[in-house]
Amino acid sequence: MEAHMAAARPPTHHHQKAANLARTFTKLLRRKRSDSAAAGAGAKETDAPASVAGDDYDSSMDATTTTTTTTTMPSLSKLKLSGNLTAAYTLDAFFRNAAEKKASPGAPPAVSPDAAADSLLANLFAGVSAVKAAYAQLQLAQFPYDAEAIQAADAAVVAELTRLSDTKRRFLKDPAAAAKDLAAAGNTALSAHTEEQRHLLKTYQITARKLEAELRGRDADLDRARGSLAAELRDERAMEVRLHPGRTLASLDELHVSGLNPTHFLTALRHAVKSIRSFSKSMLASMQSAGWDLAAAAAAVHPGVPLRRGGAGDARFVFESYVAMKMFANFHRRDFNFSFLDGREFYERRRFFEEFTELKAAPPSVFLDVRNARWGGFGKFLRAKYLSLVHARMETAFFGRQEQRGIVSAGPGFPESSWFAEFAEMARRVWLLHCLFFAFDGGDEEDGASIFQVRTGARFAEVYMESVNDGRTTDDAAFSTAAEDRTVGFTVVPGFRVGRTVIQCRVYLSRPGRRP
Q1: Strands (DSSP E) along 381-481, which ranges?
Q2: Bridge partners of 450?
Q3: Does 364 or 45 have the greater pLDDT score?
Q4: What percent of the chain has pLDDT over 70?
Q5: Element containing residue 446 per DSSP (H, E)
Q6: Residue 289 φ/ψ, nearest 5 degrees
Q7: Cα-flanking dihedrals φ and ψ of residue 112, to 5°?
Q8: 468 membership: H or E segment, kind and range
């Protein structure tokens, strides 16, 4: 009775689901068996051990699954598959087969013409950059000559050219196959671009080393040229000293403050006077070109002093006196009476001598450089003296405008004309003389130095004066009178006393018996 009630009990949801699963397996097995039978007549006998039980079991399986749960579960337990099918239809085998299919290499993807062209160009550029790097290495090995490096670089050039030729041949024959082969070998477009950049970097490094070697060679040539120039200049100065002893600054080379003597100061003074005379001649020439009345201009500088010869003859002494008077103004003061040079009041004699030595060897590009703070005081001195010496109307008459004066006034630069360059050289020599002047201590001591000039109308004295008229031919017998009857018209260049040595001032003598 209990067994009958159990058989009549309706199947649950889970039991129904298991019965459906069993039915699905049965259908799959039947389809596989029918496919095997269609393949060949003998396949059934051959594959029988690997298949399931007969059709009787299938029909009984269908009948059983539609009745009760108790008959379904034993039927499922009786389902016995062969070993091959068991391995094929288990869950682990399913995923393992999927992994094996994914890992197994399939057919290579087709390469498009554009991809092949990109690969070709990338590899060509990489090859060309490699040739350039090898050739640069070959050039570098030639100087200085290195036989082993030359052979290695030559072999590298040949190898890269061969590789380029091979790449060209393969791509011309079959671009797609060549691109596939390069990709299989790892030579993709990206890797070729990386190689190109690497070779370009190597080329730049080689070029940099080559330029550095050339720079070192040129520096060595420059040093040799400078040495040769210095030797030539030393020889020139030595020859000039032998020809004109005491007349050039070359004789003041390697001078020490303890060895100063009046001869050194006289040499510097002649150097400065020569520059003053040259600038005054340039000024006189500019006046003549501008159509100035030289006699009127000379009378404005030294009124009441008659000149023996008119025109430019004796007028040059007047303008030389004018330039010297402006440049030597307040020469006896350490600061030239300029407030911007107040610091020089505390200079010692050694400080003046060091400045003299340094400026004497400095070229114009150094002491006229406004960025060089070392010569800032000299630059201000240069501006003040130029504005005092060259009047605005004078510059306008000479050059038609006041451009140079404007540059000097505004600063901080200086005009780049030959006119101002000549003035700057004159000012430099006066500054050098001033430094050497106070290197003798300057004051009233016997070993010091002082400056003097002669008043107009004073009697001529050969001990302190030197006439610029001496040695010049004249038709006026009045100028041939005795020295005690001659009078001074004006001082052309002031005189100096250095220690116990007197350096005569140069004066222009006026007509005797007349007091201007």
Answers
A1: 449-452, 465-467
A2: 497
A3: 364
A4: 66
A5: none
A6: -65, -35
A7: -75, 160
A8: none
Q: Are 441 and 448 in contact (CB under 8 A)?
A: yes
Encoded amino acid at 53, one letter: A
Sheet with 495-498: list strands edge to edge: 449-452, 495-498, 501-503
Reading the block at residue 516, the tokens are 């201007």
Pull the structure tokens for residue 162.
């061969």
Among residues 474, 406, 418, 170, which one has the least CA distance to residue 286? 418
Q: Quick one: angle between helices 262-289 and 392-399, nearest 10?
A: 60
Cα separation, 424 vs 224, whole angstroms: 31
Whether 394 has a pLDDT exceeding 50, the answer reads yes
Tell me how many degrees the CA angle 22-1-70 measures, rounded to the nearest 5: 10
Q: Of 279, 271, 274, whose CA–CA distance to 319 is shortest? A: 279
Is the pLDDT score of 458 beyond 80? yes
Q: Are 435 and 355 in contact (CB under 8 A)?
A: yes
C-alpha radius of gyration, the chain, whole number: 56
Contacts of residue 284, Cβ cutoff 8 Å, sequence gap at least 6: 294, 312, 315, 316, 319
Give the residue among 128, 124, 125 at the shortest CA–CA distance from 178: 124
Helix (H, G, I), strand (E, B) or coil at 385: helix
User: What's the rounded mean pLDDT across residues 205-225?
Assistant: 86
Separation in Å, CA 208 to CA 130, 153, 365: 17, 17, 32
DSSP conformational letter for 67: T
Looking at residue 180, its pLDDT comes to: 67
pLDDT score recorded for residue 486: 81
Query: Which ranges of 310-372 would DSSP assign to H, the alpha helix?
Result: 315-327, 349-361, 364-367
With CA atoms as reference, report the closest residue to 340 among 378, 386, 395.
Answer: 378
Tens of pLDDT, residue by residue over 235-275, are: 876 776 677 555 556 667 777 888 888 888 888 899 899 99
Asked whether 22 and 61 are in contact (CB, 8 A), the reply is yes
Q: Which two tokens stand for residue 464?
A: 């302190």
Q: Which segments within 255-349 are labelled E, that is strand? A: none
pTM comes to 0.54
- 């059709």: which residue's tokens? 55
Distance CA 10, CA 17 (A): 13
Q: What is the pLDDT of residues 134-188, one digit of tens each?
A: 878 777 777 777 788 788 878 888 887 887 787 777 777 777 676 666 666 656 6
Tell me the residue length of the chain.
Answer: 516
Q: Are strands 465-467 and 487-493 parallel, antiparallel or unpaired?
A: unpaired
Do the beta carbons of residue 462 and residue 468 sit within 8 Å? no
CB 487 within 8 A of CB 457: yes
Whole-angstrom distance, CA of residue 504 vs CA of residue 498: 11
pLDDT of residue 453: 92
What sections of 11-90 are H helices per DSSP?
A: 13-39, 43-47, 55-65, 69-78, 83-89
What is the C-alpha to C-alpha distance for residues 389 and 81, in angstroms, rounded to an integer? 127
- 148 CB-near residues (< 8 Å, 6+ apart): none
Look up residue 459 and give its DSSP letter: B
Question: Which amino acid is located at 409 in the chain?
Answer: S
